[in-house]
Design goal:
Length: about 120
Amino acid sequence: MPPRSQLGDYLYGLFALTRSVINEQPELVGAVHATLVQLGDEDFLVALPALRAAFGWFPPRERGDIAAQAASLLGLAAPERAHLTQLPQGEASYLAARRCEALALAWAVEYGLNE
């Protein structure tokens, strides 16, 4: 397993070279999940910004497909999966997401995770 600070960078490079690999080889979602559950809370928070950037390579539909794979892996029922794979609509949802992101970024700065 790559060190926590390099996990997202590893996936970023992999997805940059071949974005289709995660859809063509669904066991990769399982491998990413297995790696993430081994991380402690602090390690996960350190890895999170780069992980977010790595999955940013995917357009929304493909991210939804990956979320559906992860939901299946976790044994979530169809209604629970819908919460992961469907984007909320409307201005209020967008503004709430922006507030949440701003709060998360402030916490990252506060805890020194923005480096």
